[in-house]
Amino acid sequence: MHTDPTGPASTLLERLRAKITRGDLEPGSPLSEVSLAQEFDVSRTPIREVLKQLQLEGLIEIRPKVGTFIREPTRREIVEMFQLKEVLEGLAAALMARRGPCLQLDMLEDNVAASEVTSQAGDTDTYAGQVQGFHQTLVEGADNNKLVEQYGRLMNQLSFYRLVRRTLDHPGRAVSSSGEHRQVLTMIQDKDPFGAETTMRSHVFASTQELLVPRTRTTLSIDREP
Question: pLDDT-derived band of residue 42, with 50, 70 and 90 as boundaries?
Fold first, then answer.
């Protein structure tokens, strides 16, 4: 069971990080210490500490005497991060296929069944959340703590939910994506590590192509060159 990063029990760091990674704050937009302190009902001191950590994580950019901004990754950085994502998720699929029956496999089966319904219905908002759940469950199902740790950092830098939501604006992508998830699940159920890894990497590559070669222009963070 995952902790809600925006809930009252969450830390200030988790709550602000969640606002960025889920796309509440657009790349390039400014962050005001005063406004954040008022929003979270804290002093400016903890806000400054949190902002320093988020800068280390690559989510924001602090420009001396200018201000603090949501970091806008270059196209090259996005390509490189998706290349890492492809490797990590491919490995996760292979490791999960070797495990056999486990809690995460049951969760993955439920996720795929539900996402097939929502994708066919055109409910892209719900499907975007299911996509995030599929990938996270897959990685956790690898039963490799270091993999989970590295993957979490990468996903934060990618602001994955925001990017997924943009690719789903492309006609037919949700249905195609759901079908790709089903193929990955089948390989894992068949205990085929090589097939699971290859299929998962192909899925990530297809998603990357949808993002980087869009049918319509999306955001500067995607189109901007290094």
Answer: very high
